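Exercise 7. Given the components listed, write out the predicted structure of the assembled complex. Treat all entries as one system.
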Amino acid sequence: MSKSSDNLIEIRDLDYSRGSRPIFRGLNVTIRRGEVTAVMGPSGTGKTTLLRLITRQLLPDNGVVLVDGVDIGTLSQTELYRMRQRFGMLFQNGALLTDLSVFENVAFPLREHTRLTNRLIRHVVLTKLHAVGLRGAADMMPRELSGGMARRVALARAMVMDPEILIYDEPFVGLDPISMGVIVRLVRRMNDALGISSILVSHDVQEISTVADCSYLISDGKVAASGSPQELHTATSDLVRQFMHGMADGPVAFHYDAPDYEEQLLGRDAD
Amino acid sequence: MQQTRSVELGTGLFVLLGIGALFFLTTQTTGGDDFRASEVYEVQARFQNVGSLKRRAPVSMAGVTIGRVTGVEFDGDSLEAVVTFVIDRQYDRIPDDSDASVLTSGLLGSQYIGLQPGGSDMYLEEGSEIMFTQSAVVLENLIGRFLVRDSDDASE
Amino acid sequence: MTLVREVYETLVEFVRTFGAFILFFVELLVHTPRAVFGRFRLIVAQVHNTGTLSLVIILVCGLFVGAVLGLQGFANLQRFNAEDTVGTFAAFALVKELGPVITALLFAGRAGTALASEIGLMKATDQLSAMEMMAVNPVSRVVVPRFIGGCISVPFLTAGFSAIGLFGAYLVAVVLLGVDVGAFWQQMQQTLSIKDVEEGIVKSILFGGAASLIAVWEGYNCIPTAEGVGRATTRTVVITAIVVLVVDFMVTATYL
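Answer.
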């Protein structure tokens, strides 16, 4: 009993490959209720793919994804949509609907899924926009926003249906230090104030250390290490050390697989 | 809200304009059916040659359309063309010895049936057959005859 | 050996794409009734997008096509002393063929490319995924209103094209070249039947459906990169042109 209430999302023995290239082989990840869980890993390890698997935008080749103990692979379209209303997702670039104003973007899920009056919608939307500090930008169009502002609007939109789980895809990429600090604080505050669970995909070690309760380091299709950020910092594994301390070469090779350097430079046409 | 208003206004104008154009095309470019009778009676006539007379061709008397051809068939026994046409019920006093001819409107125009009134006291009615008919003038025959006569003249 | 293999793979890929296209069309139809009632405003916005905004180019092109028909018709019919039938000639050409076909091609260039690139960019910027995540079906929210909007716009655009084309022919033949007004209209009215107009309307409806469907399909299934979106818009125009002309041939054949 305590297991199902503690573990919100469980990923078991998950295999996934894109074409002939395997992305995950036997991945196991557990996300606990009420925590901020970070998924880290070098670029190209399929972190975004993992998020799409969790929300069933993709289906795994093998293995299951359990949300509250339910295998989401078995849900019908209607059930899936009902489940997705429990999620809020923040895409890398915000993914605001470009033909709607900031206000309408945040109001979008409400208008689609509820029959609230305009007054009530206005009330809810302004509250959420206020929470991310952008109440004043309600009438702006997405193209007028900076990257950080767009992401905050997207966060307000992700929260507007009061989800149980917030998913952030690379929320820190390409932000100036101030915006980054704002987002970091928002992530933590949303999680604690609203009592929701958060999943965070990133490779910003510094920010993750300050915000995450638990982090997974994924490499080579598997979980290479997991634990609190502090535990990872002091871990002794070569890979973890390379990643956490940003060393250029190590188990994750600096060079992409290539024929022998000398031979390729000096050799005749190797057809 | 100003924007949605202009969008709606523009769309409304656009659709109205489209409907207007459709209306224009259907009513102004086509002759339509200038013959629109709810009650009709059917009459037949036999021709040796109907030229290129088609279904829906007008039937006119004194230049006014009073009916419409409903069928052109070939009678395999008499080797004639049987033309069926309907006439507006309100013209019920057309003498039954009237004669029908296949005429052409203009030099290159389409063909129609023209009725010439006769003098009988009996009138055409449902199922009547017109006895006196005159076939279509086929241009080639006319030219041919003209040429033959021409050469006859020359040889004399 | 490799050639055989390549041909085989191309063939399989073609059949697969065709199957996916049919499934997409079915999904679109399934969502259509709800969209018509539930998303009426979105459809109005798309009629504006694809129709009202294409109106100017359609009308200008129609006017000049009609004017050219008037000129050509007059010059060539004059040889048979039949310049009075220039109205008939222009009306036949516009109502049955040029109106529907040119409108569909212009629509593909003006509105079809816009639809394809808009949907493609929404895909590339994760907007479609974001809708999926907000439990909103992007086919229902994004694709269907655009498709229906296009389907509504094209017949009206075609009617506008043909009507203003006739006006162009009238301007050239009657006002400029001195064909008799009465002869111009009367000859036309005597020769054209309601069936000819009907043929044009049927064509415009089919072309509108085809052009809109191809545009939203290309956009929805493009590779979500700058290059992929560019390719989708190009393919929209090319495929629409081919499909429209093939369908035109088939419809014309059935109406003979």
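Discussion: Chain B has two helices and eight strands. The longest strand of chain B covers residues 64-75.
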